[in-house]
Amino acid sequence: MDQKKTVIVTGFEPFGEHAVNASWVAVQELKKLGLGKDINLHVAEVPVEYQAVQTLLPSLWKQHLPQLVVHVGVSGMATTVTLEECGHNHGYLRVDNCSFCPESRCCIEGGADCIHSVIDMDAVCRRVNSSGLGVTVSVSKDAGRYLCDYTYYTSLYLSKGRSAFVHVPPLGKPYSAKELARALRAVVLEMLELMEHNDGRKYCLHDQ
């Protein structure tokens, strides 16, 4: 029987000024590195489309039954590798690559305003920053109310909090794709380690 853990890591397709999306480039580099022989790593490119996210994420969960899903997105404002603590349900006003925007302006009608990951992002951040990796990691509580936040909330909702979201800066500002991939590898392995020791921790649905 396969005792290996399964992890899915996703990046996004190009959008707006990001003609090359650093998130998907970094995720492809991570695929080359791998997460070690005990972990099955699956990667997927997510369209920058609200409706595609609603179809793709449940199918990824169903197909692979992962222990953890980590979504990676690019942020033009980021200068560090940024771990997002939570996803938000409301406030989606920007149109996607198909010029579509959800009429409800939310991810899941009737869902909680905010869902936190079960993973302690501050702990992941501390561990990776103290490992001498050469890439700075920080923590954020606002994933930006666009496809990144939308994807994160939807994934947290589907997984009961067993998801994570990481924002990376554009390539070369300041990190290369290989440096970003090394940072993602360190972050994902720390997340798995923490999850193993924190199985009893409940995830937080703010207003439920």
UniProtKB/TrEMBL annotation:
Keyword Protease appears in the UniProt entry:
yes
Where found?
Cytoplasm
Name a biological process GO annotation.
proteolysis
- Which Gene Ontology cellular-component terms appear in the entry? cytosol
Primary location group: cytoplasm
What chemistry does it catalyse, as a reaction equation?
Release of an N-terminal pyroglutamyl group from a polypeptide, the second amino acid generally not being Pro
Q: What class of enzyme is it?
A: hydrolase
Q: Where in the sequence is the active site?
A: 148
Q: What EC number(s) would the UniProt record show? A: 3.4.19.3
Determine if Translocase is one of this entry's keywords. no
Supply the alphabetized keyword list. Answer: Cytoplasm, Hydrolase, Protease, Thiol protease
Judging by the UniProt lineage, the source's domain of life is Eukaryota
Q: Give the record's family classification.
A: Belongs to the peptidase C15 family.
Q: What is this protein called?
A: Pyroglutamyl-peptidase I
